């Protein structure tokens, strides 16, 4: 393969040859037409005919043909028409001036005309380009999504960049460049160059002989949305074409930004609406279920205590009613806490506090339901303060104790707290049947009960909410069966850096 | 109306009004009812109740507005009803001037007991509070600044002692963390809730038989403390 330089020379030689042939032919035509009329016409009129020829050459075949035509025409004119005839020798100095003037005028006219021609051609091209870009802009302005954008771009490229290969790459959600709209990349384009253009946000140009390729990044600010690649064969890219492609790139970039922002806005609105729906359902549930439930609990409580006293079997029913209402209430609380935590609506009210306090509150809750269970509590006196949401951890302890009572109705229940290296662990131990082996993790999933056929009440949310609460606190919860029988539930809370508490300022204290 | 004390119930749910009203009548009270804040204020002004029961979730206005409004011209005890997990509402109501709260759902026995305690405390408001207290096996002598448990002197730091005195002086009343902090530590400490928790913990260690299940210095979860004997 010859090196590009000699190729170029070959091309220019061919151009020169073409122009020369044209100039020769046209001059010969003029000469043949004019010679018979040589005696009739004035010398000046003959010179003007050659000049006309130069202008025609300039208009139709460009500057090079005009120049060659001017030189050749002047020589022929001097040789054939200027006396002495058929000689280049010019005897009269005024004829010499005429010949030189003719050459100069021919050159000037040829130059101006050729310039005008190329200007007109350029203007026409520019107009055509503007029209095509305008049509593209109108097309893109109405594009509702990225697919429509890609379609417009492909359409534009195949209409305006004929004889070229092109490809559109777009970044997906994970910011990876992907080829859009076609399965395979044309052989004269490469992924590597496209990546380079996307990464550096600059136009990448590659050239190989008379072919070449361009990679236009679709970049705005610090964001690159993709790359448009075009490959040219057997010819060079004109300035105008390059401008057209650059305009295409910036139009497409702006459109992609618009489409992506519109997408973002639409998604955000959708999410906000979903969230609003969820929270209004939650608050409706919260209010609409709890209000009648308050009446049920209150009424059954009043029934049990009503005067004159009920008959023993009625009293028993009233008591059971109250117990069940309490259970429903606790389930509703679990359900709502779960929904709030899952939807991210519940903000933890984290405060540094002693563990024994929340354990005390939970025990008081359980005691109030007077189940008659003995719960053995063992808390070391020097536990550090822990940071947690007291209402939620109270719920965890209550759920674990309720579970223990449910599954170990006659056994002892223990609640043990232990300080570990980075955490404090709280365990609830019962003497029930323990955890079925293999189910140690499964029981923390929502709506899973330890015994499917069990008649023990509960929707299986208790342990799931415990896990959700502890995860939110950066803690853990595990279940296991004790070696001596019964279940052990252990949850941990991270220790962190508890703040100090100072004595109050001023005044002296009690001296005893 | 003169010999029977009146309780005003401000609550929008008719079922709750009905069973609470019935329980109160059975306990010997006159009952006035209102289903929203504005009517509640009118009733409070015309019926002169001795205790007000106020639901915090009323349709027309925030229950706290009722408390603020009523406190401008009356010191009638207010018992606030609120749902679980809205501790901040309870704290706000108590800070605005409510005297006690009850979390829904509640038993009527508990409700009536609270009403009676509020009424008793309010009528004895002007009475001499005395200088000695005795609860369980503990006695406190304010004049001698002496605390005894089972006859043995207990050493309290100045902060613990001031905290105890403040709790004793508000026997039966819920005190929020902020109220305790403002009174015992001062304005600069108003946000440091862990102070009260640490010092109440120490008081319990020194005074209660089982600090994890206290009998006298009770925890109001997420709200504060209450001394009761």
From TrEMBL, chain B:
Q: What keywords would UniProt list here?
A: Cytoplasm, DNA-binding, Phosphoprotein, Transcription, Transcription regulation, Two-component regulatory system
SMART domains in UniProt:
REC, Trans_reg_C
Keyword flag Transcription regulation: yes
Q: Which residues carry this modification: 4-aspartylphosphate?
A: 55
Question: Per the database record, which ranges form the Response regulatory domain?
Answer: 6-119
- Give the OmpR/PhoB-type domain ranges: 130-229
Any idea where this protein resides? Answer: Cytoplasm
Single GO MF annotation: identical protein binding
Q: Name one GO biological process term.
A: positive regulation of DNA-templated transcription
Under CDD domains, the record lists:
REC_OmpR_KdpE-like, trans_reg_C
Q: Which Pfam families match?
A: Response_reg, Trans_reg_C
This protein is called Two-component system response regulator KdpE
Where's the DNA-binding part?
A: 130-229
Quick one: a GO cellular component term?
Answer: protein-DNA complex
Which species? Candidatus Dactylopiibacterium carminicum
